[in-house]
Amino acid sequence: MFNKLKQFKNLRAQAKTLQNALKEETVEVEKHGVKIVMDGNQEIISIDVSTDLLNPEKKQKLESAIKDANTSAIEKTKRIMAQKMQSMGGLEQFGLGGKKE
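Above: the chain sequence. Below: its structure as tokens.
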């Protein structure tokens, strides 16, 4: 039982280390007049919208542009997260990867 608690504590410490490392990473995506800057934890740092999209008649286009840019930024952060996890030893250290016996 204590071994499981120790493993859980180690897992939490590694997750916190990963989270802190990801916070230092940023991605920037620009699509259809919308630029999103997001950190590695998928928190939006800034959004910049082209002035021509601020016209009320272009509301639907603006919404679509924001969704597209956000989706692209999230995809980039997922790739960064995978790279960071791999550099930390991958999923095997969490008992989630590798061969089953």
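The chain has one domain: 2-88.
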